[in-house]
């Protein structure tokens, strides 16, 4: 795919840099990633992965991780591009804090690639994003999951349903909680705005990082309660801690 004359001119004015290491790149690059990083990123596909949640698991084990063997899932299958470590983790944190669209475009490129690879043959009807946690009005309202979902929908040619899910009650920040507390924190915390928008549809649910998977599962539960047929999830990265 060619970069396009408009983007080429923009890259000449503002030379692109690799989102993972900051190396200055050619104005002709389509994705802002240098060759060195591209060859050394912590890709999930380099590991054997759980067939349900997508977490890397040890060779010689079964097809699922221990939690997926004992827990009933609302999500048919999940995938993630990176393990949430090193330069992948740094890039995602910068994306969330700076709302830099170039970071989001690169991450969405990788997410779309994993969806094509892991969910080959699945006919999605819509892309939906995990809603942001409600914050005080003085704080940044950038919705990174929505940005990624919109970009993924464009790359895959699947309609994006804006604000399909919303936070029905106050929840704490998940990263500050233990695994069990995370499950309780988001329990029944999400609702669907318009049931007819998701009823009978196969949904691709997008978020930036999967840690415990509790938020994604609760979102999927709300979608299913509103009549969605099947839900698959995809994230830029997955954290091994807490899984």
- Helical residue percent band: 25-40%
Approximately how much beta-strand content do the residues carry?
Answer: 5-15%
Our count of domains comes out at: 2
Report low-confidence residues grouped into runs of 5 or more.
none
Strand order, main sheet: write it out: 1-6-5-2
What is the mean predicted local confidence, pLDDT? 88
Distinct helical segment count = 9
Overall 3D form:
globular
Order of helices and strands: HHHEHHEHEHEHEHE
- Major beta-sheet overview: 4 strands, parallel
Number of strands: 6
Structural class: alpha/beta
Termini separation comes to: 37 Å
Which CATH-level-2 architecture of the largest domain? 3-Layer(aba) Sandwich
Radius of gyration (Å): 18 Å
CATH topology of the largest domain: Rossmann fold
* CATH domain class of the largest domain: Alpha Beta
Walk me through the structure.
With 243 residues, this protein is an alpha/beta fold. It has 2 domains: 1-40, no CATH class; 41-238, 3-Layer(aba) Sandwich (Rossmann fold). The protein is built from 9 helices and 6 strands; from the N terminus they run αααβααβαβαβαβαβ. It has helices at residues 5-13, 35-40, 66-70, 86-98, 101-118, 144-156, 179-185, 195-198, 214-225; strands at 77-83, 126-129, 165-167, 190-192, 202-210, 230-238. It has a 4-stranded parallel beta sheet with strand order 1-6-5-2. The termini are far apart.
């Amino acid at each position: 795919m060619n970069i396009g004359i408009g983007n080429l001119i923009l890259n000449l004015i503002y030379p692109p840099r690799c989102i993972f290491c900051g190396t200055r790149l050619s104005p002709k690059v389509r994705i802002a990633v240098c060759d060195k990083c591209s060859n050394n990123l912590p890709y999930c596909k380099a590991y054997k992965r759980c067939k349900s949640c997508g977490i890397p698991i040890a060779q010689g084990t079964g097809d699922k991780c221990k939690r997926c063997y004992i827990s009933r899932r609302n999500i048919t299958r999940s995938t993630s591009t990176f393990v949430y470590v090193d330069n992948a983790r740094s890039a995602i944190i910068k994306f969330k804090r700076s709302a830099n669209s170039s970071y989001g475009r690169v991450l969405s490129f990788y997410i779309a690639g994993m969806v094509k690879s892991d969910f080959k043959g699945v006919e999605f009807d819509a892309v939906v994003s995990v809603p942001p946690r409600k914050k005080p009005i003085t704080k940044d309202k950038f919705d990174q999951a929505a940005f990624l979902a919109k970009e993924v929908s464009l790359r895959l040619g699947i309609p994006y349903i804006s604000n399909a899910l919303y936070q029905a009650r106050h929840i704490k920040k998940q990263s500050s909680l233990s695994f069990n507390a995370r499950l309780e924190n988001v329990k029944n915390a999400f609702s669907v705005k318009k049931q007819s928008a998701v009823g009978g549809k196969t949904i691709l649910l997008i978020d930036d990082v999967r840690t415990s998977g509790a938020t994604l599962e609760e979102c999927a539960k709300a979608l299913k309660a509103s009549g969605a047929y099947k839900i698959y999830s995809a994230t830029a990265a997955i954290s091994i801690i807490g899984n």
